[in-house]
Specification:
The protein contains three helices and no strands. The protein is mostly helical and 181 residues long. The protein is rod-shaped and about 195 Å long. Belongs to the ATPase B chain family.
Length: 181
Amino acid sequence: MKNVTDSFVSLGHWPSAGSFGFNTDILATNLINLSVVLGVLVFFGKGVLSDLLDNRKQRILNTIRNSEELRGGAIEQLEKARTRLRKVEMEADQFRVNGYSEIERERLNFINSTSKTLKQLENYKNETINFEQQRAINQVRQRVFQQALQGALGTLSSCLNNELHLRTIRDNIGMLGAITD
């Protein structure tokens, strides 16, 4: 502090009372200039600085208020989304369960249908085999009968002569006539 007062006192010690000069003491002049500038800034800038700080404070408070409102809205939307998600998950589980039961039902229907079709095909196969067996048996019978008839005719024709043949025909015709009367 003594240096500051010495600086002011040294103003009176300038060599010429009416002349203007420079003070070469850097520390003293810087402190004077700095104190003058600070004094002016405090005096005139106090209101401006206070207004700037108040405005800044209001903007920060408004931003915080807006952020809180947005946060509240975001939390509300998050809860709604979670509720919707739970609902969709329950519906998906229900669809999954219904889908699995529907798939199982369709699988059982398909198995039953296939089983019935296989039984029908088995029955058709057995009927076809029986039909083919009967047809084959009938064909064999016809061939055996034809061969037996041909053998019998061959035996008869070799054993019978014309006279015996005519007599057999007459006897058979007589028997037929007696049956029709």
